Amino acid sequence: QVQVVESGGGLVQVGGSLRLSCAASERSFSSYAVGWFRQGPGKSREFVAAVSRSGANTSYGDSVKGRFTISRDNAKNTVYLLMDSLKPEDTAVYYCAARVAGPITSTSTMYNYWGQGTQVTVSS
């Protein structure tokens, strides 16, 4: 069983950048595919990005393609989400989720373990 904890959220100006981290308790973090989801005010949960167990494959939601980059460092048991060219619509609580085995997926119910979330606020 793995525990994941998000960090790196905060207040940033529109057009700025921010990097979120998802730290895992499990040594064999490479056995988990990891996804990022977000939920903004008045919005439903939205898929942001996902990365395969090895880090070789990635997937992004349409709204963040070209602006966000997901990566992982299994030696550090950490997954990152680099957010660039931030917009007010990116304001949300961002959640990291881990999936046991299998390929990456954008479906939230396919993930087994979830972090507590970290707030990202983008303002002008």
Annotate the secondary structure layout.
Elements: E1 4-7, E2 10-13, E3 18-24, E4 32-39, E5 46-51, E6 58-60, E7 68-73, E8 78-83, E9 92-100, E10 113-114, E11 118-123
Parallel strand pairs: 2-11
Antiparallel strand pairs: 1-3, 3-8, 4-5, 4-9, 5-6, 7-8, 9-10, 9-11
Describe, in plain words, how this protein is organized in 3D.
With 124 residues, the protein is mainly β. It is built from no helices and eleven strands. It has strands spanning 4-7, 10-13, 18-24, 32-39, 46-51, 58-60, 68-73, 78-83, 92-100, 113-114, 118-123. Strands 2, 4, 5, 6, 9, 10 and 11 form a seven-stranded mixed beta sheet that branches. A four-stranded antiparallel beta sheet has the order 1-3-8-7, with no helix packed on it. It is globular. The model has no long low-confidence stretch (mean pLDDT 95).
